[in-house]
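Below is a filled-in request sheet from our internal design queue. Each sheet records the structural input a requester submitted and the sequence that came back. We keep these sheets so that new team members can see what a complete request looks like end to end.

REQUESTER: design group, bay 2
PRIORITY: normal
MODE: inverse folding
CHAIN LENGTH: 283
BACKBONE (tokenized):
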């Protein structure tokens, strides 16, 4: 297949999962390549997401690696054969690649969990709030790019607002709700929007109040995206060099544990809505 100049995060993940299966089987790259009837360089390109694969290739590799997890195999086949050209592709070359990768990962998600301490989660942001966040970047993006970023963020909300919306749960610290990213009117509108979205059956919003005793988890902001099988879940975190997509089973397990911990100490959904309503009235 044709080499890709810039594989997406989803394409890279497919290759990474096949590499994990090979390593779990105790096979060297050259051994796996020989069984597939190719060379080590080609297999390396497959495992890096640089070249695509057919359904047959994925199944042959899984069989050679003695993978007995059929749900995982079917999920990998679906990843390899998916030819979706999503709405995010209209932004290719106009916005940084991670913007597109996050939208693609969300599009294929089965559920989504967010934990935020300083900002309202992106999927819950209003246009004015998102515009204020993006305009504060250094260097500040040109007006045209700023509006593209805002429009892209608003389109991402389809994963919780469309007829095919996924279950979504957000845990938000009181600090994020109180910080006026924009002016007073924008802050009031943002809280009203969070309240409105939290009324949806598939959306759960919880709040961690300032007066919670013994809370030491304020560095654990995260975005956790559920895959079609648990092994294909993805954690997304901001890093000094940009966005980091995390797929290690050990790390994903740690993120699931961290989410349960912040979920446990946060207010129940009904109390959280009352709390946000009270904050909005104070503005």
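RETURNED SEQUENCE:
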């Amino acid at each position: 297949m044709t080499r890709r100049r810039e594989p997406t995060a989803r394409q890279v993940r497919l290759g990474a999962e096949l590499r994990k299966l090979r390593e779990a089987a105790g096979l060297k790259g050259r051994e796996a390549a020989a069984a597939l009837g190719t060379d080590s360089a080609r297999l390396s390109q497959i495992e890096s997401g640089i070249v695509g694969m057919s359904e047959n290739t994925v199944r042959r590799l899984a069989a050679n690696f003695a993978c007995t997890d059929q749900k995982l195999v079917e999920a990998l086949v679906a990843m390899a054969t998916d030819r979706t050209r999503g709405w995010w592709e209209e932004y290719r070359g106009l916005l940084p690649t991670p913007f597109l990768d996050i939208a693609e990962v969300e599009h294929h998600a089965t559920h989504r969990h967010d934990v935020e301490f300083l900002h309202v989660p992106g999927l819950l942001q209003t246009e004015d709030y998102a515009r204020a966040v993006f305009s504060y970047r250094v260097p500040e993006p040109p007006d045209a790019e700023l509006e593209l970023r805002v429009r892209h963020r608003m389109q991402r909300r389809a994963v919780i607002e469309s007829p095919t919306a996924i279950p979504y749960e957000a845990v938000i610290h009181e600090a994020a709700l109180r910080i006026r990213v924009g002016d007073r009117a924008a802050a009031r509108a943002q809280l009203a929007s969070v309240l409105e979205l939290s009324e949806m059956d598939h959306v759960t919003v919880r709040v961690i109040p300032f007066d919670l005793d013994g809370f030491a988890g304020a560095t654990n902001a995260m975005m956790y995206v559920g895959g079609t099988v648990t092994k294909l879940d993805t954690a997304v975190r901001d890093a000094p060099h940009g966005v980091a997509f995390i797929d290690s089973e050990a790390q994903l397990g740690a993120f699931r544990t961290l989410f349960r911990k912040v979920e446990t100490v946060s207010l129940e959904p009904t109390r959280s809505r009352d709390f946000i309503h009270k904050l909005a009235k104070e503005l």
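SHEET NOTES:
- The mean pLDDT is 95.
- Strands lie at 111-116, 168-173, 203-208, 222-226, 234-239, 242-246.
FILED BY: M.R.
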